[in-house]
Amino acid sequence: xxxxxxxxxxxxxxxxxxxxxxxxxxxxxxxxxxxxxxxxxxxxxxxxxxxxxxxxxxxxxxxxxxxxxxxxxxxxxxxxxxxxxxxxxxxxxxxxxxxxxxxxxxxxxxxxxxxxxxxxxxxxxxxxxxxxxxxxxxxxxxxxxxxxxxxxxxxxxxxxxxxxxxxxxxxxxxxxxxxxxxxxxxxxxxxxxxxxxxxxxxxxxxxxxxxxxxxxxxxxxxxxxxxxxxxxxxxxxxxxxxxxxxxxxxxxxxxxxxxxxxxxxxxxxxxxxxxxxxxxxxxxxxxxxxxxxxxxxxxxxxxxxxxxxxxxxxxxxxxxxxxxxxxxxxxxxxxxxxxxxxxxxxxxxxxxxxxxxxxxxxxxxxxxxxx
Length: 371
Prior knowledge:
Blueprint: E1 5-6, E2 13-14, E3 39-45, E4 48-54, H1 79-87, H2 90-102, H3 106-119, H4 124-136, H5 140-153, H6 158-170, H7 174-185, E5 194-196, H8 198-206, H9 211-222, E6 226-227, H10 229-241, E7 253-256, E8 264-268, E9 271-277, E10 284-287, H11 288-293, E11 301-306, E12 309-322, E13 325-335, E14 344-346, H12 348-351, E15 355-359, E16 362-366
Parallel strand pairs: 4-6, 9-14, 10-13
Antiparallel strand pairs: 1-2, 3-4, 3-5, 7-16, 8-9, 8-12, 10-14, 11-12, 12-13, 15-16
Helix pairs in contact: 1-2, 2-3, 2-4, 3-4, 4-5, 5-6, 6-7, 7-8, 9-10
């Protein structure tokens, strides 16, 4: 029998899904949460997604045990906490805060972490532990403030976008949540350890774009992930139940992935545009002058990744065609600036309307098959 391991992030014991695993499936997922209460989780191991509903990462493989109720009151500071803060010991304070979280003393975890960061210094690892404690207490506004700061400090980290998307969903900011989670999934590949799909499904349904869940699952398959029967049923429910075929891409498109992005001819809402493809962007971008010229209005203001880094834009939807490929009502963000001579930057919101194939750095978006 495979021996249990202790997660190096949340310290929960778990049965590893792969050799030399150092983190539990929940912590190695996009959300990196020690456990997911009643959530649907797609755990990816060796390219296979295992869909399961778990109350806790450790409980999925171990006998159920009574778990103490979460404590919202502050326990008295432990000697270890006081010593770590006095010495500004980043390793010890991380251990202390994680220990409080394991014992479900979440208010104490928040106090210890915040006091250390005020007196000493911040770190993303400690931010994560404090954020988790806030989420456990349903402090979604406080959790969102932390994940928002992390996104702005390190916008290239896909996990930070996922955390903020989840937090924003709980705050009812569903359209922004979908944008964040889509950005997190833009770089999905077969080496991913897991993806929680529930936060996306909830916010996509609430913002009247339920097909984004189906497109996300299909995107994972294009990335080399094999869905098991349960996950396939979830995909079928989202895709067939919401008649997503009418939003599928038509035709095909091929390009070479890399640092250089060749310009391509396209049409946005029937108007000629010059476009480039950047697969690392979650949301397709449109230059504001172009959007104004064709009467494309903007909705909620969102953070988006652009070819030059983090930017802001307003959400809209438009029919888009690039080369011989087209898709209707594609989510786009209207932004102030794009690279010179470029009107549209095609991102995941357009590409996951298709099935993606790859041959080295040569990529193709092809019309989805019926099976």
